[in-house]
From TrEMBL:
Name of this chain's protein: Transcriptional regulator, AcrR family
Region (Disordered): 1-23
Protein's organism: Streptomyces globisporus
InterPro entries, per database record: Homeodomain-like_sf, HTH-type_TetR-like_transc_reg, HTH_TetR, Tet_transcr_reg_TetR-rel_C_sf, TetR_SbtR-like_C
Residue ranges of every copy of the HTH tetR-type domain listed in the record: 24-83
Transcription keyword on record: yes
Length: 198
């Protein structure tokens, strides 16, 4: 193409340098403390308290995680891997619709571990600049595969979209979070979802 400037090594993005040992320790302490704080106080837990409990200053926290969503993304990577593994296990299930709903139930269970997570994931699905998109996109892709299989089997309507299902799943998690005295609510709402999908 005329006028194009060839890309050379000087214009390529530099590879990320590995963290120094002390930086890696700080990072790991921050993630561990954030996981505990989010489980105990919800995802709006004080970042200053998380830094203090991790034994670092707030500036160190922000050097590793420029905002709350970035810290939440780091905390939820382990759970994300578990949900993606579960989607692969269910990909060959004999009942594709049941497999899809089981997987959505696993998302509800995970979101229920951290008050405020369902709301944050709902917001991230509409905000491409959020660090939580790194959680949302792989979940969306995994769920789309399960949904496609269920639709191809004829057990789920063709007009159902994975985006709607994930929003519905987060809404169920949010409803369950708001009703801690009704531990069966999420299961009942998921069963209603199953009926509506067919």
């Amino acid at each position: 193409m005329a006028g194009a400037i060839p890309m050379d090594a000087s214009t390529a993005q530099p590879a990320a340098r590995p963290m120094r040992a002390d930086a890696r320790r700080n990072h790991d302490r921050l993630v561990g403390e954030a996981r505990r704080s989010f489980a105990e106080h919800g995802t709006d837990a004080s970042l200053e308290d998380i830094a203090r409990r991790a034994g670092v200053g707030i500036g160190t926290l922000y050097r590793h995680f420029p905002n709350r969503d970035a810290l939440m993304n780091a905390v939820f990577q382990e759970a994300l891997c578990s949900l993606l593994d579960r989607s692969r296990e269910l990909a060959a299930a004999e009942a594709p619709c049941r497999a899809l709903v089981d997987w959505l139930g696993a998302i509800v269970t995970h979101a229920g571990e951290y008050r405020g997570l369902a709301h944050s994931l709902m917001s991230a699905s509409r905000d491409e600049t959020s660090a939580l998109v790194q959680c949302h996109l792989p979940l969306r892709e995994a769920g789309a595969g399960l949904l496609r299989r269920a639709q191809e089997s004829g057990s789920v309507r063709d007009d159902v979209s994975i985006d709607d299902l994930l929003q519905l799943t987060n809404a169920i998690a949010l409803a369950a979070e708001q009703s801690p005295d009704d531990p069966e609510l999420a299961d009942r709402l998921l069963r209603l979802t199953l009926r509506g999908l067919k």
